[in-house]
Amino acid sequence: MVLNTYDADKRKLLSSLCHGAIFFSTLVLSAGIPFAILIISDDPVVQESAKESLNFHFNVWFYGLILGIIGFFWWTIIVLPAIWIGAAFLLFMTWIVPIVAIISCLNNPDAAYRYPFIFRFL
Known about the structure:
Elements: H1 8-20, H2 29-40, H3 44-73, H4 79-107
């Protein structure tokens, strides 16, 4: 029988920090926090949370780039509502979903939160 030897409070803190890093900035700097935690942590749940957070960062940047390109090149009356809907969805994804992830990490520290509607590169 293998016992869980990882510190639950440390796991909560590091996992929450991974998911909350998106709030620090929208620049590449915010992805540095989960990347650093992924490198230095030996806890498998924290590493999974860091990977999931990095995947979330990549998705937010990708969708933001797509919306920016569409808005820059195809600004017409027909496309403008689609851009606003896409921007609202992106805003929802960057604020609400990480808050849910942090709450999930605090309530259930033994499982990594999985973001909905994202592509997983890592």
